[in-house]
DNA sequence: GTCGAAAATATGAAAAATCATATAAATCGA
DNA sequence: TCGATTTATATGATTTTTCATATTTTCGAC
């Protein structure tokens, strides 16, 4: 074992548990993503676009949990690399529609498969009851957080 | 509501749910931390040290979910600012023991109180069953992730 | 229609984070 | 006890990320 102190605060703090779980659960797969030649934010963009091609920059940024100006640059690089294309929206010239190229789609679909396999492995390492609960609990938390602050 | 598409992959993907929950749940409190004049990594250091004063750099880095070289610099800055002191370990001169100053401790304890209040509010926004489950589920996940890969 | 506000994206400059590696101390065997 | 390894921390160079703000387009009230 590494360090077992019965820390009074941190080790039981919800925000710590969330951050640490996310971090640790993602590490393996993120390594895999990098081994495939992508940075994590790029993988996120691909995953979003497989679900819904032609998203605009702002929405990609929200879903990928990052800032708009960063997303602009990431899309630039992915464009330069031939994974996506940028196109103007017909109805609103401010918007940039990001679309997968054939190459981008292949890579994206392949990684989504890998991600699903990895997720299955993760969940199967949990007891059935925990595996059944975890997504529901997190979804509920997200729902609650979306609602405007009652205060 | 913002964007409700029934995304096939991302919105139900465990690593997304974890990252998004962590991100969203933390935003409010992190804003509070910054309003108090600290960056998030600095708050994490303070929280660790309240639990266990005199930690070494490496352990602080692990617990705060960041790299050692980054932690070195963060501790430097906190030292310069008078929140912590750096002292050599008596038995092992490689180690740097980081300790709270009086000022650092005051700030840390005050923020821990704030964090607890915030956590209580978060949990109370969940249904009782979810609130009761969430920490347990996350702890289980962390436990599982700590174990060496069975593959 | 026109004007002011809001929305979407882009960009330069600054700050933060990472990476590779250096240094120094402890540990472990032969 | 010497040398090879490992552990702990530090640091220079580079890459990422953020921040503030500019630009362009749309929207809404009048």
TrEMBL record, chains A, B:
Domain HTH marR-type: 11-143
UniProt keywords, alphabetically: DNA-binding, Transcription, Transcription regulation
SUPFAM superfamilies: Winged helix' DNA-binding domain
Family annotation (PROSITE patterns): HTH_MARR_2
GO molecular function: DNA binding; DNA-binding transcription factor activity
Protein name: Transcriptional regulator, MarR family
Origin organism lineage: Bacteria, Pseudomonadati, Pseudomonadota, Alphaproteobacteria, Rhodobacterales
